[in-house]
Write the structure tokens for this entry.
Amino acid sequence: MTMTLGKGQRKSSSIRSISSQSPHLNPIENLWREQKLNVAHQQTRNLKDLKKMCTEKWDTITAEVSANLVKNNRKNHCASTLLTAPSFTGTYLADSSKTNIRFFIINGITDVPELQLPIFLIVLLIYLITLGGNMTLLLLVCLDHRLHTPMYFFLANLSIVDMSSSTITLHKILSSFITGDKTISYTSCMIQSYMFGSLIGHELFILAAMSYDRYVAICNPLRYHMVMNPRTCSLLASSCWVWGFLQVIPPVGILFNFSCYSSIEVNHFFCDIGPLMKITCDDTSLLENLFFIEGLLVLNLTPFLLTFIPYIFIIITILKIRGGVGRRKAFYTCSSHLTAVILLYTTLVGQYLTPNLSSILESKKYFALFNMAAVPMLNPLIYSLKNKDVKRAFRWTIGHMRKYLSVCCMWIAPLISNRSKSRSEVLENKMLPNQTNIRYFIIGGITDISELQLLIFLIVLLMCLITLVGNMILLFLVCLDNRLHTPMYFLLGKLSIVDMSSLTISLHKILSSFITGDKNVSYTTCMIQMYMFGSLTGHELLILAAKSYDRYVAICNPFRYHML
């Protein structure tokens, strides 16, 4: 075996005589196997083209492949040869197997291959709901002047924090599943740690500011607008943002100056200070003490006291109120905020204050996932489901959207708008005997109860999004992956198309009627909808029958399966 060394390598390296059957050559053989698989499917006409192709494919070998080979062969004399791969940027030190890291490998939530797709779909769905819910709440607060109050001002800040923290921490799970690249650069890892710590600190202090707002509203209602004026609210919010970005600088600064790591694998789904401290070779005593003092006293205990001390006075004030109605109304004004606070602090305790035992380390990842995915998703639901102001603002916004859409329809399609009739005229026509000359119908919908309209709309919209995203991802995978080009997945792709089509045809009227308020459907459109729904239902039943026959052949006659 021959290998070309540079000038620096010649001075610090020694030449070894290695047998062709030596196990020390296994890492290089594995790397050449990757190279062979990359080049095998390419068509080359001569040696020049082959050399060019090998050079190009060598540059595409991922850092993860090289890192895994080096990690699994640390005592191997030829393992250092793998460092010549351009994508592998770590420099392994021969004396202590320690590494100067330029990138990390994020292990993710689990290593079980069968769980990768379900976790990806769940995280994607939660992320979309989080963005949709918080953006809707932020839009309502900005558009409706009745929500221009201190509580909703802080709630808008909380929505920005939730969307930012979810995007910063969850994007790696989604991108690594799509691209297969689990690596993250050292600088990006430090930035992610800094931003995550900053946003967590900001969220805790925003909740403390909201607690003070509820204290003033309940314990001193007559001076509420004088105390919680726009200047005070802006000062509190800006202080939370500045303190959130400043308080995490010392620990991340110390972590950034660490020069040696014993491993490049981070046992987490994002870069957090705790998992990075476990793999560093440097002395972490200063960082551990700072992390304990700042994390427990500054980041957790201080906002915890600032959040719950006002609630002591709130409870005392509520108990002094005479009459159950007044007590319930006073408690109702702070119940949503108290629920969000308890939910956040519970997940933080499970994530950071539990012992670092090997049996608990995996559960900490799930606490972190719940904190980064579920809590931002639940916050807009907690603050809006039982909040009359948010519901009223939502209806007000929808009403203005209806007016805007109606004006657009008048300009774009005046003929269509002129054909519409009022519901009263249709009811009068129904009273006429033998009336058959119908030009349109009125779709009654699921229910006439006005209080349930918004809830049904949200449920149907969520189901539509889940169905469309799930079937589109499945169809996308079947089309791109050659291993899924089998009869079973071919039929499954057909079934996904039928499901998306039937969903769009049957449920679009529920969504459009809620937004526009128009429940009318023309006679011709109604007939087409009936025809398409019946056709797709029959097609789905026949597809399921074909899948049954496919399974029958695969199990009962496997040797002739590909022939049939």
Q: What stands out?
A: Residues 113-386 form a domain with the Rhopdopsin 7-helix transmembrane proteins fold (CATH 1.20.1070.10). Confidence is low (pLDDT under 50) at residues 1-16, 74-99, 413-424, 431-435.
